[in-house]
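re: ur question from the group chat, yeah i did fold both. here u go
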Amino acid sequence: MNYESTLDYLFSQLPMYQRIGASAYKANLDNTIKLLAELNHPETKFKSIHVAGTNGKGSTSHMLASIFQTAGYKTGLYTSPHLKDFRERIKINGVCIPKKNVTDFVEKNRVFFDEINPSFFEMTVALAFDYFAKEQVDIAIIEVGMGGRLDSTNVILPLLSVITNIGLDHTQFLGDTIEKIAVEKAGIIKPGIPVVIGETNPQTAPVFLEIAKQNGSEIRFADQHIYLKNVICDLIGIYQKKNIQTVLSAIKIMEKYNYASLPEIAIRKGLANVKKNTGLLGRWQIIGEKPLIICDTGHNEDGIKEILRQLSQTPHRHLHAVFGAVNDKDITSILSILPKDATYYFCKPNLPRALNERDLQEQAQKFNLQGNAFSTVAEAFETAKKSACPADLIWVGGSTFVVAEVV
């Protein structure tokens, strides 16, 4: 198998939530445990930090990785989904896993895959852990895929657990209230392992306090402390301030327990060079000037609110929105908060679970959002660029998958 045929196998043989949605979701850890046993338990062979949350977990994970890398640690980073290349999910010191490692892993374990039929995500987690163990990373930053308690990554025993925040997302799997979702995310809290919570919320704080108490885990709410001042980060969204607080709180705990030595200069340099060190894409990413073109992968109500807040603070004459969504999410709460005076280019990203562009346009019109429908992201984007004046702003978003086709 070459790399391309390996990817074809992964994407077609193994159910992939990114492409098909709910039917690929497995609400247990059985297959992950079987896979890791077959691989001689790589998850026990490296130190880790586990990061969950509704929004900000990707940025937080990349910031932590950048800081550890800058401080001289060989740093693994596991995140999802990928934007352009599958290998973005698995990196060491900002470098994607080599294609050969992906191909060799699948070839070597294909018979076992066919026996137990793991999901795409289960297999990818096993690949990441196997790679980090073999490469003997000093630390790995592991981002939860969805939820926490039943996520495939939740087989590690980390040095520290981090939960950035809680919002309503993936409610069909995680529960239909903030409190229920908090319980699922809090499933990454392990006995005696400290936990950092990014945001204090009166609805979720009691949940976290109770579960931390049951586990005998020290708990710290990042927004209740002040750490370094005048920190500069190259992730420029204003919502990153919360993530920076969370990261600084995590570092404080790591140092308190002598888990790592992270000098202030490494922290500051690491935060200033997240994109350069880790290759992070799609977070308030500016890809054009005159008109200003901004991509952001925020895709739930809380994430979109933060984007809109920043758009309102970004000088522009008129807003053009290249907007698409997936079909297994209730997007009415998002459509209800989008600006009515923008011009929309409703589009359908290229994946099976994408929401049809005409259905999206129809739903949007109920909220007085006006614009044309396009069958591809590329056509919508090109039309927006032709329509916009130099003083306008084009925002590309609504779904990670729309952004992936533009950056």
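okk and heres the other one u asked abt
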Amino acid sequence: MREDFARTLSLLRQEKGVSQRKAAAELGVSQALLSHYENGVREPGLNFVTKACDYYNVSADFMLGRTMSRDGAIIVSEDLYDASQEKGNVLKGSIMATLQKKLVVNTACVLFDLLGKMGSREAITAAGAYLSDALYQLLRRLYRAAGGNESYFAAAKGDLDSGKLTADMMLARAQYAEALEGFEGELPNMSDQALAENYPGLSQSVAQVFHTTDERLGRLGKQ
């Protein structure tokens, strides 16, 4: 519990815009003890967890890192708004495939809507190139595994195996970062509250993608 709880506890206080001293006083603990909780030095008891949930108006599951939904909802495929169906584009598959499809499609919709509002052609182009490369690689490897004739593709088989595609993805990622760093307009509000308000049907997908990816990265760090 310690790592997820400590990180969430600290971020919620910063988001609320209160000092550690003020938060500690309102939560009924010393500033030193709150500091220990926020840094993962000590693990709190149930009474403090309950108080913190009430103070920051979040569920215990969110506070403990079990879900990215503040009200504690566990996201399943049936709960997710499916942007791919807006024009009759219904993709069929198993429950797991349906869930993953919704998470990816919905999150991509949010990403490109945000980039579109920014109006950065460079960022949009780079993001499209990066994601297109990823999809190309996954689909082409599936095509290969299924015994397809790869002469169908303009890019040679060796281009996929040599790392050229990975290099192109890295270039697109660098161009995307450069476009964002050099952007002179107003960047979007990326807080979970803003995403929930602006994308009520899609923000759960974004939160779930953040959460599951964080978990995978966390496991890699422990190996």
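fwiw on the second one: The radius of gyration is 21 Å. DSSP finds eleven helices and no strands in the chain. idk if thats what u expected
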